[in-house]
Design goal:
Layout: H1 2-19, E1 28-32, H2 51-64, E2 70-76, E3 78-80, H3 89-103, H4 113-117, E4 122-124, H5 125-136, E5 144-148, H6 156-167, H7 179-182, H8 187-197, H9 204-207, H10 211-216, H11 228-233, H12 242-255
Parallel strand pairs: 1-2, 2-5, 3-4
Helix pairs in contact: 1-2, 6-12
Length: 286
């Protein structure tokens, strides 16, 4: 872990210092960290190593030594959007829900009773990108870090019926299912779903990875960030309904043929009057 931490900072330094040598001088450095920056007593750091610390230490030290560029960093919790990466709750839910739907099961929360009721936050990937651009173009907010989220909090207990409605399923009683252990057995089923619905042929082990889902579905206590600092800095778009974000992103995955479409694009039933629309995305907030 310590080598990964130091290597990440070295990669950052190599990129920045190479860009500094170009004819178009570097103006702004942005990097994303996350909630694992914090220990049990935020805002204090926990015991290292943590490559978030190495990245932040590098940019702050370079600024002290006279670097002309500015920097900024956002610390999101769970990021909701398409990717084939390791930590993707949206894909976990999308694949799990699709399998439940196709196999004729009810939609059970596969985590712990405690995790079903804790308060959490997340951020839409489009909102995260919009804020990155905003920070790069607002000098008064630079050379600092910020928590970011959709602006609300949620419980899986409230989100689960909304997700079930998208898939057209009933919500069943929670049942602890270690997804890392159980989901590999459904690889052939997923291949048959791809053929049945004409989906993109993404390998099952890449479309969703389950260690992160098991961690999210067993969180023992509330976990969310205070976004007051970002609001006070002047960013005014932290006003999304998380339920609506998930509905929109499931629509997006269906449009991309990652999962089947089980509903038409309609207003999220749990958040009437929400400002989000699937067609306009974050542009609606500008």
């Amino acid at each position: 872990m310590s080598n990964i931490s130091k290597d990440t900072a070295i990669w950052m330094a190599n990129i920045i210092e190479a860009l500094e040598e170009t004819k178009n001088p570097l103006q702004h450095v942005y990097f994303t960290t996350g909630a694992k920056y914090y220990g049990e007593c935020p805002p204090l750091r926990h015991f290292p190593p943590n490559f978030y610390y190495d990245e932040e230490d590098y940019v702050t030290e370079r600024r002290k030594k006279g670097a002309k560029w500015t920097w900024s960093s956002l610390r999101p919790g769970c990021i909701i959007g398409y990717s084939l990466g390791f930590m993707n709750l949206l894909h976990n839910i999308a694949v799990f829900g699709t399998l439940c739907k196709e196999l004729g099961y009810v939609f059970r929360f596969p985590g712990t009773p405690v995790a079903y009721k804790v308060l959490l936050d997340c951020v839409d990937v489009d909102l995260l990108a919009d804020c990155q651009i905003w920070l790069a173009t607002h000098p008064e907010a630079q050379n600092d870090f910020y928590n970011i989220s959709n602006g609300d909090m949620f419980r899986f207990q409230q989100l689960w019926p909304v997700l079930a409605a998208w898939f057209g399923m009933e919500v069943g009683p929670s049942l602890r299912i270690p997804l890392t252990q159980f989901m590999p057995h459904h690889k052939d089923t997923w291949m048959s779903i791809i053929k049945k619905h004409g989906l993109r042929d993404i390998p099952f082990e890449k479309v969703a990875q389950w260690e992160f889902a098991d961690a999210m579905f067993s969180i023992p206590s509330d976990e969310f960030g205070d976004v007051t600092k970002l609001r006070k800095a002047g960013y005014e778009k932290l006003r999304l309904y998380t339920e609506e974000v998930f509905m929109h992103k499931l629509d997006t995955l269906a449009d991309m043929k990652v999962i089947p479409r089980y509903r038409s694009k309609t207003e999220c039933p749990s958040c009437p009057g929400a400002i989000w629309t699937s067609e306009e995305g974050v542009k609606k907030l500008v």
